[in-house]
Design brief:
This protein is of the alpha/beta class. It folds into two domains: 263 residues, von Willebrand factor, type A domain (Rossmann fold), CATH 3.40.50; 35 residues, no CATH class. Helices cover 34% and strands 22% of the residues. The protein is built from ten helices and twelve strands. A hairpin with a 4-residue loop joins β10 and β11. The longest helix has 23 residues. The chain is elongated.
């Protein structure tokens, strides 16, 4: 029952337009609201609580995986050069050995993958999970920009996944905010491509550089074996932070009684008074959450939990402060 309820939108049908007056009610967000979160992002820290291993050419030490290097040019191979850096394509064309030259990245890429799958358009407390996810992504983006990082992202919707290439300054953040706000708007457009989270993670593997910070914001309902495989590869060369978004009704049924739940098209009635039903429902959520925690922990990654009833800025500040 929990997995079924999680696909229902109890406040509005995703196929109906939401009046402008509801844009700040927790059903949708607009760009102005996400811009105002800039001030609330000041207390967040995006440094990870692990031993420092290397130094980038930026303003702080880094505990992130990878070389933190980007390609600069190719030149003739000289005795003593690392053979692992040989450019075999240029060597084959010129018939003379050439090597790749790398330079330290001065800005860390921060890529925020925000999931807006149908199960995110659900909420019974302060806001939909989709709105909480958008606010969370905005806060992380503003903090990364303040730290001098390049900000980009992937916004995953039922219709597409929109790629925002990492860029410095406010430009990269504003592009991401526009995509986030648009993704929270209801749409009846049919699915036209592969929009699974596994597909988005595969794209991340292609575009992320070693040393990047990857933020995954989702309820992870579609996190299958293929997605786990991509996460394993990402964890080898990048640092990944997961944010699990949930609603209280997903964790525990309401007080005993008969309830009707609708997505605007289908109606489901259920009785929450049965003790066995309540116990089974809670176990389903607990098992899903525990699986996620183990999945991230076994790869040396961190997973945060964020409920729709919680203040997003306060919750992130609590979890990320001083790390």
């Amino acid at each position: 029952m929990w997995s079924f309820l999680n696909t229902l939108n109890v406040a509005a049908s995703a196929s109906r337009a939401v009046p402008p007056a509801n844009r700040s009610s927790g059903i949708t967000v607009d760009v102005d609201e996400l811009i105002l979160l800039r001030l609330k992002a000041q207390g967040l820290s995006l440094r990870q609580p692990r031993k420092v291993m290397t130094m980038l050419a930026g303003s702080r030490l880094s505990g992130f995986r990878g070389r933190g290097m980007e390609f600069a040019e190719t030149r003739h191979y000289l005795p003593g050069d690392d053979i692992r850096s040989i450019d075999w394509r240029v060597t084959a064309r010129s018939n003379k050995p050439h090597t790749k030259i790398f330079q330290e990245e001065r800005e860390r890429p921060v890529i925020i993958l925000t999931d807006f799958s149908p199960s995110l358009f659900f909420g019974t407390r302060v806001a939909f999970k989709s709105v909480v996810a958008a606010r969370c992504a905005a806060l992380l983006a503003w903090r990364a920009q303040a730290l001098g990082d390049r900000v980009g992202g992937i916004v995953l919707t039922p219709q597409q996944h929109q790629d925002i290439r990492p860029s410095g300054g406010r430009r990269g953040v504003l592009r991401l905010l526009q995509a986030l706000a648009q993704a929270t708007q209801p749409s009846s457009t049919a699915v036209t491509q592969d929009t699974r989270i596994a597909s988005a993670l595969q794209q991340l593997r292609r575009v992320s550089h070693p040393g990047s910070l990857i933020c995954l914001i989702s309820d992870f309902q579609g996190f299958d074996a293929e997605a786990e495989q991509h996460l394993t590869h990402l964890a080898k060369h990048t640092n990944v932070l997961g944010i699990f978004v949930y609603d209280e009704l997903e964790r525990e049924l309401p007080p005993p009684g008969r309830y009707s739940v609708t997505d605007g098209e289908h109606l489901l009635q259920f009785n929450s008074a049965n003790p066995a039903t309540r116990s089974h429902y809670q176990q389903q959520f607990a098992q899903h959450h525990e699986r996620l925690k183990q999945l991230f922990a076994h790869r040396g990654l961190r997973l945060l939990s964020l409920g729709t009833h919680q203040d997003v800025a306060d919750r992130l500040a609590q979890e990320l402060k001083g790390t």
